[in-house]
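Predict the 3D structure for this chain.
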Amino acid sequence: MEVGNVFIYITVILSAFTSLVHSLRISNKTYIEIQGKACFRRMNGTHQIGCSSETKGNVGILYHITGDNDTEWLLKRGPNKPYIVLLNSLQFKLDFIKKLKNSGKVNGIIVIHVLQNETLTPFPPEGFSPDSSCPNDRYGLYHEDKNYGNCQNVTWNPVGHGMMFEDFDKFPIFVVINQTEVDILIEDCYEKYNKPLPDGSVREYPLCAVQLKDTMSGAKDAKTCYRRTQVPTNLNPDTYCDPLGDHNVIATIKAVPNQDVYPNNSVIVAAARLDSFSMFENIYPSADNHVTGIVGLLAAAEALSKYKDDIINNNDTKDILFAFFQGEAFDYIGSSRTVYDMQHNVFPMVEEKGKSTLHLVNFSHVSHFVEVNQLGYRDDGKVWLHTDPLSQINTQTSKEIDKMIQLIKSVADNMSLGIGENSRSQPLPPASVQRFLRKEKIPAVVFSDHQHSFTNKYYNSRFDIAKAIEASTNDSDIITEQAKNLTRISTMLARTLYTLSTGQDAPQDMKSSESIVNDLLFCFLISRQCEMFRRVLDDNDNKNLDESSLPYPFYVSVTSTNNQVTYLTKRLLSYFIGDRVNNTKDNCKQSGSNKVNQYYWMQGEVNTTTNKRQGFCSKSTAVYTLAQSPLFDQDDYNWNIDEYSAWTESSWQTDSIQMRIFLVPSKHLEVALLCSGLALLLISLVAAYFINLKASILFSINSSQTT
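Done. Predicted structure below.
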């Protein structure tokens, strides 16, 4: 190769590298990245919901709406469309969003969500719920029922506007949760460059623009995107969507192996749900809905476990099966799968030949069903009991429900705890037990904090936080009023379950612990870096708590992820109802063919003398069961029928979600720059032509320099 050619090649490579470095530097100087949380796309069996953007993002001039006058100026006078509109929490309403979108002037929305600053993010006093006014109705017990379907009798979620289920295709919506970045958007971008002058006239260029990028891979519906994902090609190995799902957590008081007899009507199910949702990525709080239920049931299990020998050592007692269902916010994913597995004799686990596993449970075994729902906002200061009117057409079921109601009232009266019973003609609120009652008329009672419509005005929304239920504290040692109230409810629940199981009055010293309830509320709602979580984790898992102090999100997520709320609930349940066995850490596991019990190594409490944790091995029946729609296991299922839901989440690339601001020049300047660039290009081409024409003279190289 000639030396001259080598020199040219090196020059080209260095020039390209230098251009790349300079382009990155220019990009960093041109754009300011904003860490927003995007509304993203999900799909069910019939359609898509959520948000997306154009492939390269939506761009618009930032406009901050603070009142009606701002809206009027934008829609009637704003000349620099498209706009990206910045709103606060009170303005973020479905009708208003549709008005902006349909105006043709707005290209996307940014919502301020700084919970620490109520001036920037006031709680909507009338409530806010992106869920529907009749949650989960399509896959519930009363779907298409002429008397109860579509919430004809009771509108459970009157503030629900269904924004979650709208399809904002190519119309991105983001929230910003950091006040510093909100200040950048308002002060450094909008007020400095874009805010109209006092007389209403338009500001001169440059203007400050925002790019909202929210590119989704999945589209149309769950069936379409999932089948496309299942047929990968070498040319396009990417996935389009993943099924929503995770695991349920279940545990029984009695460890009954599959070889033993499990009589009919010998199991009481005590259930709660684990999840909620909101529109935006990684913003999935849950306080009244449904942490109060989770904590209430866990605390009841802890109180009951102190007297579990009364149940275990008596063959005539009923077993108690604790169940925490995952994915319930998305049309009862977890409870639907449990019903499916019961029908196919694989619940709680598939029997293994030659091995001892937990006894199968099906509908014939279930005698009663008690569900703990929302408990944080007690209507008239009472806990309300809900029953199903359709089940009570059966005389025997009706009699058993009567007995359950009378028992609960008796236990509550002895504690001076207010109990309210709803009309027997009122249907059940959204509850996991509805999926069971579709198959079998089981005597069932649902505990909740509302008599009719939800008392929770922020159902399945980003405002359902600890502060809203008066459980907010920065000190886990301070017992909140909510913790005190939940302790009394969980005590009542534990005593009720004990009597249903044994037929005997519960001991008066059977009580839930205020400190445990308070700790659980703190761990789930305030900070994951809490004592109770550290106790139940092993050394390796404990390190994960130190990554962030934020509470874990209550979103079911996709089946390929590890849900920390589910994992912690399983360990907490084992900690509360399990036995501490004398196994070392290395031997804390199943042995041989006995698969009835599960073994979990836990760090345990801190020894006050050594100031070190005393680890121990917990043995219990706490185990995972699948919480995924059966549809994804079947190739020939008709996706259009309403037996099982089919929710998926769209996939996206690492750089597909982005928010950034930058300055844009006037159109005249852009045209001038374009013309200058074209002129420079033309001059360069002419120069290159003549240089090439005289190349033999300009770049002559002596033959002696060749190699």
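The first helix runs from residue 3 to 30.
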